[in-house]
Amino acid sequence: MSLDFKVRADHLLNHIDGTWTPGSGGQTRPNLNPADTTDVIGEFAESVAADVTAAVDAAEAAQPAWAAIGPIARATILTKASRLIEERIEDFAAAITREQGKRLGEARGEVMRGLAILEFHAGEARRMNGETTAAEEPRTIVMTFRRPLGVVGLITPWNFPLTIPIWKVAPALLSGCTAVLKPSPLTPLTAALLVQAFHDAGVPAGVLNLVQGDREAGEALVDDGRVAGISFTGSLPVGQAINRAGAGRLLRTQLELGGKNALIVLADADLDAACDAIIHGAYGQSGQRCSATSRVIVDRSVHGELLDRLAPRVRAMEIGPGDQPDADIGPVVNDERYQACLGAIENAVADGAKVIAGGDAAELGTPGYFVRPTLLDDVAWDSELAQEEVFGPVLSVITCDGYDDAMRISNSVKYGMSGTIFTQDPALMFQALQDFQAGMLHVNRPGVGAYSHLPHMGAKASQLGAPECSPDVWNFYTDLRSACIRY
């Protein structure tokens, strides 16, 4: 399959009130292929505040009628959208690879996970229940029920340009909310294809609006007083800024932020299985996942043996464009990530870390953002590399002395997205589930890739608000009401 599929001119635009429309400021932003920056995918709208206002106008006008049709009818439309996405899987996968850089197999996997998440949420339509409870008075029925929050803003990142918009759009629409989606300016095409699929499935005009662009559009969405909630996935500093900006008007926020995830290898671990999990968790999608394995905390007694097995596999990984069949790892998404990865490696070496594999850029003959998969040993547990998110294919190895020391190191960071342990001791498996200060926990398996029907959530600075991909998500997109009825 060629990745040179034709990009429709309307998909370069915003989608407001059911119509593809250019940004009102007339500005555009080039969308570049990170594997070859001479490949300009298109010039996408760079929205200004007036575009966000128009999108919120449309969402506000459409919301009462959309809420009135009920969740089961709304789920029927979501199911139609799922079928259309499945029919267009190769277009979605090609778009993801071309603008985000991940390998084509990973892109197809993202589409399939997005479909599973959409299927899960559509099924929740018949379970958006309240409850009946006892009354304090005779001849009285007491019950609770849910009402949609209203207009919501959905701000999504570039690392999962299809899955994350789906896991926000699906519950927003199913709940009876109307939405303004603002995707990352690095992956505008995938978002446009998604909105097109929902439009083709019969989502009415104004119910789902797309505003392309960067900071100005995002700030305008947060600042619009008619927006009742903001669901954001991205960096901790931006999430904190959103929370501060909305605090004065009690804006409801759902924030999924960064991670600095540990995989613990104890002395009795299956080292081959641990190596498989480390390769998948640290270098899959070039390490650009909030749940990526970025720290391996290994017992001193098996440290050397683990590195002897792991290092040759890292060195043997083939780096190349996402459509290269034999590539094991693709580029990082842009120059900012490229420089951040190389800078983090340089600073770690200056702090005393030792490069075991990788450690530099890869020159492949095209102007792309390729960083070799990097393995660093002798990393101090409290060093900058061990504490701060890199979001790239850069893995730290930290030595520990037993379970208690390993867990101390694991919990020493401000984040708490994912925690993983490899051990054959059943008691320590279950003890770790109690001791990890993280939201998504794994035992003897890769620390990424939670099932589509399990909550996607973090702890500490990784999460604020209701978890996504969970029935608890209705606590964000709906308000609970109580009613007492005397008869």
Automatic annotation (TrEMBL):
Active site positions: E256
UniProt-recorded Gene Ontology molecular function terms: aldehyde dehydrogenase (NAD+) activity
Coiled-coil segments on the chain, per record: none
Keyword match Oxidoreductase: yes
Residues covered by the Aldehyde dehydrogenase domain: 20-481
Keyword terms, alphabetized: Oxidoreductase
Known EC number: 1.2.1.3
Keyword Oxidoreductase on entry: yes
InterPro entries the UniProt entry points to: Ald_DH/histidinol_DH, Ald_DH_C, Ald_DH_CS_CYS, Ald_DH_CS_GLU, Ald_DH_N, Aldehyde_DH_dom, Aldehyde_DH_Superfamily
Protein family membership: Belongs to the aldehyde dehydrogenase family.
Protein name (database record): Aldehyde dehydrogenase (NAD+)
